[in-house]
Write a structure and sequence with these properties.
Elements: E1 2-4, H1 15-22, H2 39-49, H3 57-74, E2 77-80, E3 84-86, E4 92-98, E5 108-110, E6 113-115, H4 117-131, E7 136-142, E8 146-153, H5 156-165, H6 177-188, E9 196-202, H7 213-222, E10 226-232, E11 237-241, E12 244-248, H8 256-266, E13 270-273, H9 276-289, E14 297-299, E15 302-304, H10 307-334
Parallel strand pairs: 4-7, 4-9, 9-10, 10-13
Antiparallel strand pairs: 1-2, 2-15, 3-14, 5-6, 7-8, 11-12
Helix pairs in contact: 3-10, 4-5, 4-9, 6-7, 7-8
Length: 341
């Protein structure tokens, strides 16, 4: 639907006719100022340009159309689109994903096939991000060190693509949990206090980095940032050894006590993901603990259209000027001298 932002501008449409009726004609120039031998011929040719210019109805119609187009552009036409939902508020949610060497361990099963931990984490996190409509989501990847892969953004598709491109060992082989929390805290500290959330996912214990995990957790607590920790890895796994098939615990390095302390200290919660189903359930619980947003408000996007009538007026003005100027120029070029009267 097309609307005009300044509809009162159409009141200016009769302005040229009002001025034409109210203003007096320009008086003729006083006689005898300068005598030109060929004045009559010059006057006749000038008359063909001036007086004949607006005698033709199409010329007057063109000038009127140009004025109408200018007024239409001044009224600022816009195309108003359909209503689009806009979330009232959303969470500022950072996700910290472990890329240490142990994330390559294949102790998860998907469709009967062994799958490494990172692939399962990617799938579950991808579905979680896709459902977070209206939230600003950021991504931190860590192992030996922590790196900000994606700042807080409403473009969840970008975060999903960056997470999908992450590979085990991309940032080293060890686990710097404290640095990961520190990077996330730095990005969340300037956001509204009620919406600061960090989801930390790891499968081991902190054995690298500059900041100790509990020190970083204390800083998060002081800033009101809630941390939800997720420990990933199966409790039982059958492996083939030289002594035969044995059952081992592939998650023996997981420091659940520390992850629980971090979550409890900051007002979050610790979750244990031992298989694909439990990991998906954890993200479902996070959706309930940190709802995405409230009821949306609706906006109607608009596209400005003023340049269309303005461009048309400019083109018509150029064409009219060419029609009025070119014929007299031809006459002058054909008659280089006026001769004697």
């Amino acid at each position: 639907m097309i609307e005009f932002l300044f509809p009162w501008a159409f009141l200016l449409l009769p302005l040229p006719f009002i001025f034409r009726g109210l203003l007096k004609p320009v008086p003729p120039a006083p006689d005898g100022a300068l005598r030109v031998p060929f004045f009559q011929r010059l006057l006749s040719q000038a008359g063909s340009v001036g007086s004949m210019a607006m005698r033709h109805p199409w010329r007057l119609l063109t000038a009127t159309l140009i004025w109408c187009l200018l007024i239409c552009a001044f009224a600022r036409p816009v195309f108003v689109g359909n209503e689009l939902p806009l979330p009232v508020e959303g969470r500022n949610l950072m996700m910290a994903i472990d890329l240490s060497a142990s994330m390559d361990r294949e102790d998860f099963t998907v469709d009967g096939r062994s799958t490494n931990r990172l692939s399962v984490v990617k799938a579950a996190a991808d579905d979680f991000i896709q459902r977070r409509k209206g939230d600003r989501i950021g991504l931190v990847l860590f192992s030996d060190r922590a790196y900000l892969q994606a700042p807080l953004t409403l473009d969840g598709e970008v975060v999903r693509n960056l997470l999908d491109e992450a590979q085990v060992g991309l940032t080293g082989t060890q686990t710097a949990i404290g640095d990961a929390i520190g990077i996330a805290v730095k990005r969340l500290k300037d956001q509204p206090a009620s919406s600061r959330v960090l989801i930390l996912l790891t499968d081991g214990a902190s054995n690298a980095g500059v900041i100790q995990p509990m020190q970083a957790a204390e800083l998060a607590k002081d800033l009101g940032i809630r941390i939800y920790t997720i420990g990933v890895g199966a409790n039982r796994m059958a492996v083939q050894t030289v002594f035969g098939r044995e059952i081992v615990n592939p998650s023996e390095d997981l420091d659940e006590a520390m992850l629980t302390k971090i979550a409890t200290l900051t007002g979050g919660q610790y979750f244990r993901a031992q298989d694909v189903k439990s990991l998906a359930g954890i993200y479902a619980q996070l959706d309930k603990l940190e709802p995405a947003s409230g009821e949306p408000v609706y906006i109607r996007p608009s596209v400005s259209l003023y340049f269309w009538p303005l461009s048309a007026a400019l083109i018509l003005t150029i064409l009219l000027a060419l029609v009025l100027i070119v014929p007299p120029l031809k006459q002058w070029t054909e008659r280089p001298s006026f001769g004697a009267q």
